[in-house]
Fold this sequence. Notes:
Elements: H1 7-21, E1 33-39, E2 44-48, H2 61-71, E3 79-86, H3 96-105, E4 112-115, E5 120-123, H4 125-128
Parallel strand pairs: 3-4
Antiparallel strand pairs: 1-2, 1-3, 4-5
Amino acid sequence: MDITVNEAIKQRALESAFAAMQHAYAPYSHYHVGACVLCHDGTLYPGANIENASFGLTNCAERSALFAAYSNGVRKADIAAVAIVSDGERLATPCGACRQVLSELIDLHIPIILSNGKEQQILDISQLLPLAFSNEDLHHA
């Protein structure tokens, strides 16, 4: 499934994500990731990966950006796109935990723009996490 995104929206989200990547704290992996949640009203919520010596306490860029947006009152209906960028050789794709968080906090067909500055791909969460576990799975008949 091809997902199209308005070029201006895509560029704005990518620029914000690449700027956020400059603030990554990655002394262990040296792998810098930036993300941006772009809302329909034009508001940007950037995030960067923040590592910790206790690796389980590390927070990925996309969760940093999403949690910042939600902390400011943003909800699914407000989100137009999410951009995730890295300085790696390959495109940065969300880890399993981030895919699960994305599947709950954004609408199913919101474009997720991946880039490493050399290449890019646009997907949605249904492509990144098919058959996701959701709140619907918690309801009993």
